[in-house]
Structure formats: structure tokens, C-alpha cells
Fold:
Amino acid sequence: MDLDRLAPIEAGQEIPAADFFRPAMFVIPEVNPGGTHVAALSSGGTESLKLVVHELESGDSWLVEGLGNMDVEQFSWLDDDRLILTAKHFARGGRGLMAVNRKGRARPYPIVQQASFEPMGSPREDRLRLLAMVRASGVTDDRGEMVVLDTSLETAIMIDATAASVEDGERMERQNRRAIKEQITLLDMGVSQRYVSDGNGQLAYGIVTDAGREYLHAWDGKKWTQSPVDLEAMTVHGPGVEPGQVVVSVHRYDGAVSPVHLMHAATGELGAEILKDTSYDFDGWIIRDPGTRKMVGLRYNRTLPAFVWYDDGYKQLHTMFK
Structure:
């Protein structure tokens, strides 16, 4: 297989069958909020994934250095300058949530390491405030905690857990603890809990499973409120348009299609009906503008993928590319 050729086959020429099996040069590209740079994962024809940044105006590209043999699993722009990424050393098992400044030209530094973590988002008005679910030995309890992380701790260093001394382990715990700016009280009930952030990177609601049933709880920034709704009568698809809203399908058992509504999570009050297909229940996802974080549409499955748009610009783009 010719992995050295980067140019596409010329128009009218037969595409070699091997081209359909070539590893992708770039995966999951993401533009920074200012629209000046694109970051993407790149294998470079190898089995490992690295992070590459491309400047649109100049055409220059560069590799994020300083990660050694670690593979980048995922990444996201926090603002125009700073990226966060999760990197893992598959041979040694080390894994860290990291940040890198200067559009990927600076030295990456760990935010938390040797921990279980799930980034949940960052608010548009304070993009460097990172909401995450974290479980770190000696820092959080065994089930993990919802925290706000400080992504600016450039003095932190990555520690090789396979060769770490007792002092190294203590230093890693101190670094992990120092990264936590705020802890959010979690739901202390049920067999399991899962949490969802709203479209703007703030904690929105949680769903508790207990005795085989699920219960919706809304978070208002200070306290949890259990919703009176019966989740066996509806499906919660995600956060809605306004803070405190969720998107739900209200189940119908008479053969009719289940309508999709906005709903106030804390009170269970149904709002506007935003979708009612003639034949198919909604089984897709919410589409949000990556810049404004607003809900702009829904994507779901009919015989072919179907879209409903609430933004004229996205509707026009979709029509253009159909």
C-alpha cells in the first residue's frame, strides 16, 4: 500500500482499491472559536495518534510536542489559544488530562493524572473553567466527584507512575488536588447516578437509578430538585434551549408517534412541541452550534437520516449540501 502519496487521484482516473483502506491522515478536526486554527488527530501512517495544529491563514502546521510515546485519545479547544487533551501511554498505562497553550506550540502540562476523568464542558463566558467528573486516589472519594478544574497550572509535571517513588506519588496527589477549584455536591442516593451538562458547559441535571426505576433531578447551581415526572413515560434526550430545560419524547402507547417537547426539568412542566414526525419516533441527537452553544437542530433516523432545523443559516447550509 502506497502510504507516501498524499495527493488525491486526478478527476476521471480510477481510484485504487487500496485507497479505501489507507489510514486517515487527520481525524476529528476541530476549529478554534476564533476560526483561525484547526486541530486534528493524526496517525502519520502509524498506529499511534498525535495532535496536529494547522494555521488557516499561513498554511503552517505543527505537531504538539512533549508527549513522548503517549497517544492522544481526544482533545478540544478551550479558547483560541488553549487546548485540552487526554493522552495515554498504552504500554505503561499512564493516562492524563492535559492542557497546552500557544495554539499547541507550548509544553503540554497535566491538569489531573493517574485518575479517571470525564470532561463535561466549559461555559462560553469563561472557557478556561472546565467542568469534569474526576476520581483520583487520595484526592476524591471512591465514586468520584464533580469538580471545576483549574486549567492554567503550567508548573505541573507529568509523572511516570511505573517508576514513581513515594515522593513522586505524593507530588502527583498534590498536583491533582491543586487543580480542583470547586467541588459540586453530588446526588447521594440510588444504586447509580449519571450527570449531564447543559449546552453551555454547566452542570444541568442528573438521573438516579434505584430499585429498577429512574428519577430526574435538576441542578440550579446551588441545590438539587427532584422532578415530579415519571421517566417511564418519557425519554430525556439532553439539555434544551434555556437553562433548566431538557428535551424529552413523551411516550405514546396508542400507536401514535411520540412528540418531542421542551420541558422544565425541576417542575416537569412541558413547553413547546419541537418535533412530531408523521411516522417515526425520535431516536437521534441534539445539534448545537459549537460557537454559540445554541440548539440549532435535531438529527434522527427515518428510512434515511432526517434533520429538523431551528436556525435559518444551518437550514440553508443543509439545503445547499443536499
Remarks:
- Residues 192-321 form one domain.
- The helical segments are 166-179, 312-321.
- The radius of gyration is 23 Å.
